[in-house]
Design goal:
The complex is a heterodimer. Chain A is an alpha/beta fold. Helix content of chain A is 51%, strand content 10%. Chain B is α/β, with parallel strands linked by helices. Chain B has 16 helices and 8 strands. Chain B has a 4-stranded parallel sheet, sandwiched between helices. In chain B, strands 6-5-7-8 form a 4-stranded parallel sheet, with helices on both faces. Classes of the chains: A alpha/beta, B alpha/beta. Chains A and B meet through helix 6, helix 7, helix 15 and helix 16 of A and helix 6, helix 7 and helix 15 of B. The structure holds iron/sulfur cluster (3 copies).
Chain lengths: 417, 408
């Protein structure tokens, strides 16, 4: 008897959508410029200016999931980049240095780069390195970190730079911003965000219709195609499938026994294997802090001002206390019994404060948290045995804290891959 | 697959403090003489006590109220004008057992060692700590310290990541205003225009004297110069100024040595380990320039305050104009180009990077810098440090590097 991870019917649609996205980047763009952007950049502005966009972070995640990232990281290391640097950055730089060794031949060469440091400071350095190799102009949008609150001065600063960004795009590729188009893109972005938010909220149901790997895989369009009609259509379909699961009482994990919360970026190369260790114990990740990082609607009214405030306030640009409070809320809303934090050696802004967060969350909720050390892409940092042992011990803790019946873990042979 | 992280630097028990003693008195410790250079100045009596500046700081400076800071972008003048004594937090020798429980192993030595001091209660005399926004590590550390459950007040200073950004000036201005408010509200300290002017003048004087001393690099051992700079970050600026004055008069009397041997530039962030400088000289090299936050980056550019000028504006201008740190960006000031210019202008024949492990800003910048040096045909060597560095290996590598640079 093996507990199984249930596959979504929309999975093939998702695959087609993403394939189409990557293929479209290679089609003649008829003079449309291409920008590489960070996951937290205000892409709405670029779309409204008719700029096509590619996401190196998403590309990195794909390379990770396909077990290609480590080799690309090594290419970057051969060029002098330390193995201690973010593996998205190393993967992307490795693909720039050796495109023929990279999946899909690497990302097509951009005309400009846009990095927004609302997720980390690493992207600034990474994009500087990319700009240097690719010989294309770079714009860095600086969003001051919110240790306490977003002050009017901070929003004003971001807003000023948004104007500067528009001028930068006008200057570097002769595109104009159409206010009408910006409104339409923002509307579509909001629609995507709303649908995705609702999909995630449906995981409050028991059993949860989705598990972490579903969330990780299905978040791709919200990042990469936010503000497009394609993303809206896809999330409508996913929305109805998930609603159907809830209506029929179908869980992502058969015999859901424990409801968990995930913190940090996925372990892409281990997407199914790692999470299946939990599935085997009947543990389902019903919520996470990562795929919700894109759930921010642009307020109505002055769109540029709305964009400034929205992008300055993303999850990773806010204090550790804020994040702890968000986790505490999620734990209550989703009826969670334990949380797992991926101490991701690639991502310092996400990982350095996890012990402080764990302490605060456990203090307030009384539920246990497990910290697992690994990396989102670099497989050299994934040590199977210790992780397995720790998961087992963690589940035993959960069990002792309120488990009703004994769980018989089925450890081997249940992989869905 | 071989794990690149397990082969990293091994830990020894030596740290920068081991090399700071020189002719300086540190009670109960072995005193190692610094080879060559001027005779010990009267500063010996003051004691540079760099071994551990923190544990006996309150006893050393009774009545002084310390405010901690990490980064050379901190507006020391404002802190000083508030009647506080800025005290820079550096890594010090020792284990980091407490810190290991709150920080993952991939945090830099600066973060881990200072957190250890905090958790051991060794900073309880410090009134507040100022965190300037720089890298991801510092950004997290500011919150971790605030959440650590100590009495220490944490003050944040929002420095733009892009110093050339439109609006950067206003953000720094707002940051300074917020800092003044925090000093007032949380510490009950008021800064007057007059006191700020006086503090600006003091720090300008300190930087000027330091620059003079740096201009005499050939008259004093590199380690000595490093000690004199480091001391300034952990002692009151008034005391540092007299220390510098004494050292300058000693240096003025000393003969300018006609040094030979390969000329090197040192590049990094905070150089918390001075031993490498000594080693370079011992092996026949000489240090002629640096791009360090505890060295030339700190002392370059002063606050241009004219008689009727506004001291706050003058401080903002210096922040935007000073040498750019690896954690910052300036669209027209590019780190590789600057390094090449530095090396060329000082006639440096080689560059030694001393980089803290797990330091992302340095990790990225140094690649482009090395590439630029390669293009220019300037050889370079990279030394990665944790809390400490493996000395034996370092010696061999430096020796080989210096041989490469030596003619014949
Ligand atoms: S993984 Fe972390 S460090 Fe890397 S780009 Fe993303 S947010 Fe930045
Ligand atoms: S290297 Fe940058 S962050 Fe570090 S002390 Fe210097 S200015 Fe501050
Ligand atoms: S700039 Fe580097 S050494 Fe300094 S705190 Fe950040 S990571 Fe550590």
């Amino acid at each position: 008897m093996g507990r199984r991870h249930k596959r979504l019917k929309t999975a093939s649609e998702l695959q087609r959508l993403m394939q189409w996205h990557y293929a479209s980047l290679r089609l003649p763009r008829l003079g449309r410029p291409l920008a590489w952007v960070t996951s937290g950049a205000p892409v709405e502005i670029l779309r409204a200016m008719g700029v096509a966009v590619a996401y190196p972070e998403n590309y990195g995640a794909i390379c990770g999931a396909q077990h290609q990232a480590t080799a690309l990281c090594q290419q970057a290391e051969a060029e002098g980049y330390s193995p201690d640097l973010c593996s998205y950055a190393r993967t992307s730089l490795g693909a720039i240095f050796q495109p023929h060794a990279a999946p899909m031949g690497g990302l097509p060469k951009p005309d400009l780069l846009l990095a927004c440091n609302n997720i980390c400071s690493t992207v600034v350095k990474w994009y500087e390195a990319a700009a240097d190799s690719l010989h294309v102009p770079l714009f860095v949008l600086d969003t001051p970190f919110i240790h306490r609150e977003l002050t009017p001065q901070m929003s004003a600063y971001v807003l000023t730079q948004l104007d500067e960004l528009v001028e930068f795009v006008e200057r570097s590729c002769g595109r104009r911003l159409s206010a009408e188009r910006l409104r339409r893109v923002a509307r579509q972005a909001n629609e995507t965000v709303r649908l995705w938010g609702e999909i995630r909220a449906m995981c409050r149901a028991r059993p949860s219709p989705l598990n972490a790997p579903d969330l990780f895989v299905n978040m791709a369009p919200i990042v990469v195609l936010r503000g497009t009609g394609g993303a809206v259509r896809f999330y409508r379909h996913l929305h109805s499938e998930v609603a159907e699961r809830v209506r029929d009482g179908v869980g992502a994990v058969s015999e859901e026994k424990y409801r968990l919360l995930w913190d940090n970026i996925a372990i892409w190369p281990q997407l199914y294997r790692f999470y299946n260790y939990f599935v085997n114990y009947g543990a389902c990740f019903v919520a996470d802090t990562y795929t919700g990082a894109w759930s921010m609607e642009i307020p109505q009214g002055d769109i540029m001002k709305g964009l400034a405030e929205t992008y300055a306030s993303v999850y990773l640009n806010q204090s550790l206390e804020y994040r702890a409070r968000r986790m505490i809320d999620l734990i209550k809303e989703y009826d969670v019994q334990g949380f797992v934090m991926h101490s991701n050696r690639s991502c310092k802004p996400y990982s350095l404060g996890q012990y402080a967060i764990r302490r605060m969350v456990t203090q307030e909720t009384g539920i246990p948290g497990l910290v697992v050390e690994s990396d989102m892409c670099d497989e050299r940092a994934f040590a199977l045995e210790p992780i397995r042992t720790r998961i087992q011990a963690f589940v035993e803790t959960l069990e002792s804290m309120g488990g009703s019946h004994t769980t018989q873990p089925v450890v081997e042979g249940t992989g869905v891959r | 697959m071989a794990c690149p992280w397990r082969e990293g630097a091994r830990r020894t028990r030596k740290s920068w403090s081991d090399y700071c003693e020189g002719e300086v008195t540190v009670e109960g410790r072995r005193t190692t003489g610094v080879a060559a250079g001027p005779p010990p100045a009267a500063d010996a009596s003051r004691g540079l006590w760099l071994a551990d500046p923190y544990s006996d700081w309150p006893a050393r400076y009774p009545g002084r109220r310390a405010v901690g800071y990490f980064c050379s972008y901190a507006p020391l003048e404002i802190l000083h004008a508030a009647g506080l004594t800025p005290l820079r937090l550096f890594p010090v020798e020792g284990t980091v057992a407490q810190a290991d429980a709150v920080l993952p192993p991939f945090s830099c030595a600066l973060a881990r060692s200072t957190t250890e001091r905090l958790l051991l209660g060794e900073l309880s005399f410090v009134e507040a700590v100022l965190f300037v926004h720089t890298c991801d590590t510092m950004q997290c550390l500011a919150d971790i310290w605030r959440m650590a459950g100590t009495d220490l007040k944490v003050i944040n200073f929002p420095l733009p990541a892009v110093l050339s950004a439109r609006g950067a000036r206003e953000l720094v201005q707002a940051g300074q205003r917020e800092l003044l408010r925090a000093l007032e509200d949380e510490l009950g300290r008021h800064v007057t225009d007059e006191s700020l002017r006086a503090s600006v003048a003091l720090y300008n004087e300190q930087r000027r004297l330091l620059s003079e001393l740096y201009a005499w690099r050939d008259r004093l051992p590199a380690l000595r110069l490093w000690q004199l700079s480091m001391a300034g970050f952990v002692m009151p600026v008034e005391d540092h100024i007299s220390l510098l004055q004494q050292s300058l008069s000693v240096a003025a009397g000393a003969d300018g040595e006609s040094r030979r041997g390969p000329r090197l530039a040192i590049v990094g962030t905070v150089l918390h380990e001075g031993s490498i400088l000594d080693l370079i000289e011992e092996l026949g090299g000489q240090v002629v320039a640096d791009d360090l936050c505890t060295g030339e980056r700190y002392l370059q550019s002063s606050v241009e305050l004219h008689e009727d000028g506004d001291p706050q504006t003058a401080l903002v201008e210096r922040t935007l104009a000073r040498p750019v740190c690896p954690a910052k960006r300036h669209a027209d000031r590019d780190a590789p180009e600057r390094l090449v210019r530095l090396a060329r202008s000082r006639g440096a024949q080689g560059v030694v990077f001393v980089l803290p492990r797990y330091c992302d800003p340095c990790g990225f910048d140094s690649v482009l810098q090395r590439r630029a040096l390669d293009t220019e045909g300037i050889p370079h060597l990279t030394v990665e440090t944790e809390l400490t560095q493996p000395t034996g290996q370092l010696r061999t590598r430096l020796q080989a590097f210096l041989e490469l640079l030596s003619p014949g």
